[in-house]
Amino acid sequence: MSLKQLIECVPNFSEGRDLSIIKQITDEIESVDGVQLLDVDPGKATNRTVVTFVGEPEPVIEAAFLAIKKASEVIDMSKHQGEHPRMGATDVCPLIPISNISMEETVEYARKLARKAGSELDIPFYLYESAAMRPERRNLATVRAGEYEALPEKLKQAKWKPDFGPAIFNPRAGATVIGARDFLIAYNVNLNTNSVRRANSVAFDVREKGRVKRSGHPITGKILRNKKGDPLRQAGKCKSVKAIGWYIEEYGLAQISMNLTNINQTPLHVAFEECRKSANRRGLRVTGSELVGLVPKKVMLDAGKYFLEKQQRSTGVSENELIHIAIKSLGLDELGAFDPQKKIIEYLLDNEESHPLVNLKANALADLTASESPAPGGGSISAYVGALGAALGTMVANLSAQKRGWEDDIPLFSSAAEKGQLLKQDLLHLVDEDTKAFNKIMDAVRMPKTTDQEKSERLAAMENATKYAIEVPLKVMRTSFSCFEFLSEMAKIGNPNSVSDAGVGALCVRTAVYGAFLNVQINCKDLSDAKFKAKALKEGEKLLEKAMKAEERILKQVDKVIKKS
After folding, report:
1. Residues 297-322: what's their mean pLDDT?
2. Is the pTM of this model over 0.85?
3. Which of 162, 310, 466, 497 has a Cα at 20 to 30 A from 210?
4. What are phi and psi of 107, to 5 degrees?
5. Percent of the chain scored above 70 by pLDDT?
6. What's the pLDDT score for residue 64?
7. Which among 41, 158, 21, 143 is positioned nearest to 85, based on CA atoms?
8. 434 given a catalytic annotation
9. 3-class state of residue 181 by DSSP
């Protein structure tokens, strides 16, 4: 299964007072299928609106282009006044990798957006941060120096030739900066004090730029300087972290308020732990924390794994449990309820309609399968049985990690359990995917067939839908077969009291492979493409043959362990 790539786009538009203008821009964003608008945050004083939307890369850059185009039509920069630095109707438009996509790939999409906008709109475009094509343009403040008012003269200079678009001043639209950057997390850590000075002491310990060096007393001592007269600094513990202490009257406590600008360099849980260590050294205590805005799911999963490792427990538990551990360990629910469905980006994008079968209770899925409806059928059930096989192997790994006297092997079993969880999730996804494949065939069957063109289009649609209905069970076969390796390992070295569960897991996985192959065979009957058909059947036959042998080996191993014990 190919995992969905997600990027976030956070364009800043130079209008924060006329909501009808902002609505025209956000309407353009929402007109693109595959994009979800998450937040619109207008500011009157800054006369600026920050918009957040998420989706797969191609729809996101299409939505961004339409938004930039519309902003150039409805915002007149020659009349703009506001407190925030700005240089264009769309001032800045960063793309941010969220899941299953690298920064390098995100950079290419940022440049693709700038190239498209530069060729179709009469606006100068600059690239910044990771997408910058010149090192001196990485910093946004450098690119935006002089703001809108400086553009007429700036664009005449060779060193400020735009990366894309004309080097001509556009009085109405100004210029736009497009980039790719890491996800920024606004994060506050709560202290059991109301002292801003003490909170600042912790903040200075943690933040990258640290504190000014002094001789003698750390607060009143003379500031030490270099030969140029600049203050010397003692670096803080966390790179890519900005922090300051403040007092929140609403909560009656002081906080360390942080911006984590590169969560790969300093993950959320690392920033929390450094605050905790610093607070403890100063006689303070961290009581909890607060996330401002949204976070990628990986941030919470990584935090959950970190705290489980500290407890010497397996990290191969369910996604829900990892997130629960993260919430409790970070104290994210101290100041109010923390709902993962509203705080995690991927969950906001998800909905029950995208995987209706997996969301059913076991009895409801059984009842629906037993009904007069042809779907869900054997394909979906094969994927589900495979998921159960992966789950059983994962259970053996987790139980083995908790066995007394086996503490040295926790990393081994934890790693196996993590693999099992991933395979389980992939197979659960395919439960619904198989039914979607069937529905694609039915949609093609219902297409009109009156004219010759309609008949031709209907045949092509049926052929494509049938190919997809073959590809999905093949994915079920491949993914299910991948479970044998770790099931075999668990049967050999796992907790002997649970070896029968590894055996049942192997039976489930073999059933999944066999059942999916039956679907490959029956769907191949309706396919015209002989080459595609032959290739699919050949792959399916090989996988089935290998699965039968793998199941036999595992069951022999299970029998051996049971008899020995």
Report:
1. 95
2. no
3. 310
4. -60, -45
5. 99
6. 98
7. 143
8. yes
9. coil
pLDDT > 80? residue 349 = no
| Contact present, 269 and 326 (Cβ < 8 Å) | yes
Q: What is the C-alpha to C-alpha distance for residues 491 and 489, in angstroms, rounded to an integer? A: 5
CA angle 270, 275, 281 (to 5 degrees): 130
And the tokens for 151?
Answer: 């553009």
The whole-number pLDDT of residue 3 equals: 66
Beta bridge partner(s), residue 358: none
Residue whose C-alpha is closest to residue 356's, from 437, 431, 439: 431
CA gap 296, 318 in Å, rounded: 17
Where do the domains of the chain lie, and which CATH numbers do they carry?
6-180 (3.30.990.10), 185-349 (3.30.70.670), 352-564 (1.20.120.680)
CA 469 to chain centre: 28
Phi-psi region of 393 (alpha: psi -120 to 50; beta: other; left: phi over 0): alpha
Residue 404 confidence (pLDDT) above 80: yes
Higher pLDDT, 231 or 267: 267
CA distance 53 to 68: 14
Which two structure tokens, joined as six digits, stand for 167? 């080097």
* Predicted confidence (pLDDT) at residue 2 exceeds the cutoff of 60: no
Are 127 and 108 a contacting pair, CB within 8 Å?
Answer: no
Of the candidates 76, 84, 350, 526, the residue annotated as catalytic is 84
What would the mean pLDDT of 393-405 be, rounded to a whole number? 95
Mean pLDDT of all residues in 152-161: 95
* Placement of tokens 């839908």 in the chain: 465
Mean pLDDT of 289-300: 89
Kindly write down the DSSP assignment for every residue of 498-526, as one continuous string.
Answer: GHHHHHHHHHHHHHHHHHHHHHHHHHHTT
Q: Check whether 304 has a pLDDT greater than 70.
A: yes
Strands in 130-200 per DSSP E: 176-180, 185-191
Of the CA atoms within 13 Å of residue 232, those in its CB half-sphere come to 10
CB 172 within 8 A of CB 87: no
Residue 536 to residue 530: CA distance in whole angstroms: 10
* Rounded mean pLDDT, 536-557: 97
Higher pLDDT, 527 or 351: 527
Catalytic-labelled residue, pool 302, 432, 434, 501: 434
